[in-house]
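Worked example 2:
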Amino acid sequence: MATIVSGMRPTGNLHLGHLHGALKNWLRLQESYQCFFFVADWHALTTDYATPQGIQESGLEMMKDWLSVGLDPKRCVIFRQSAVKQHAELHLLLSMITPVPWLERNPTYKEQIREIVGKDLSTYGFLGYPVLQAADIVMYKAHKVPVGADQAPHLELTREIVRRFNQFYGQIFPEPEVLLTEIPKVPGLDGRKMSKSYGNAVFLTDSPKEIDRKLSRMMTDPARVRRQDPGEPEKCPAFNLHKIYCTPDEIDYVSKGCRTAGIGCLDCKKIMIKHVVEELQPFQEKRAGYDRRPGDAEDALSAGNRAAQEKAAETMEQVRSAVGL
C-alpha cells in the first residue's frame, strides 16, 4: 500500500475551506493508502514564534475536528509533529545539503514576505521551513503528497532535496509524487478566499443560527443593488457555495432566478444555507462528544504519536548509517 503524508498547522478553528479543501480528500485517501496526517505545530512557529500561546491547545482542538469529520485512527496515523523528535534531526541533516538559493526562490517565501505585515519573517526558520516540510514527508517514505495544482511546484523542492540526498548517500528515500486534488474554491463572506485571518470564515463549530447569520450577509453580485436588478451567478461569491452544496435542480433554479431577478439574493442564499447547516449537524454532534470526553482525542493522538515514532525511528536508523553517524 502506497504511503500518503499531509499535515495542517494548528492556527485556530477549522472552517469550510479546510473541510472542502483538505479534510474530505483525506477521508477518501485513508481508505486506499497508508496515511500519516499530522498536526504541524513546529510549522506554526515559523510565523507565530513570538506568540506561541495556544498552539498546543489548538492542536488538540484540531484533532477533535479531524476525528469528528471522520478520520479514523484505525485507518490512518494521526500525530503531533513535535512529538516525533526525529523530524528535527532529519531536518538538520537535510539542511546540510540544501543550497540557500533553492530556498530563496521559493514562491511562497517571496509571497508571504510581501503580504504578511506586522511580523518579522527574516528568520532561518521561515526561510528553511521547506526543508522541515521535506523531512516531514520523507520521514515516512511518502510515495504521494496530496496538493492542489497551485501547490505542486512547492513539492518539487522536496523532490530536489531527495535527489541530492540520494546522490550523496544512496537510495534511501523515494521521490514523492504529486497527487493532484481538485480543491473547490471556497469563498469567504467577503468574496476573498475563506481565511480566519481575513475574518470572513464560517467555522465548522458555528451554531446553525450563526451560520445563517453569516451566510445571509455574504457578498453577492455587485450588480444586484436592488431586488429587481438582474444579476450573473458566476459573478456572485455565494454562488460558488451553491455549486458545492446544492442539487443540479437547485442550481438551475437559482441561476435562472438571479439572471431574471425572479428571486432575491437572501431567498437564494437560504437554499444553500439549509444544506450547510445539514452537512455540519452530524459533525457538530460528534464534536460535542469529544468536548465532553477530551481524553478520547488525547488518547487517539498519543497512540498516533507512538506509531509515528516507531516508523520514524526505523527511518532514522537507515539515515544515520547512510550519513556515517
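Residues 3-186+294-323 form a domain with the Rossmann fold fold (CATH 3.40.50.620). DSSP finds 14 helices and five strands in the chain.
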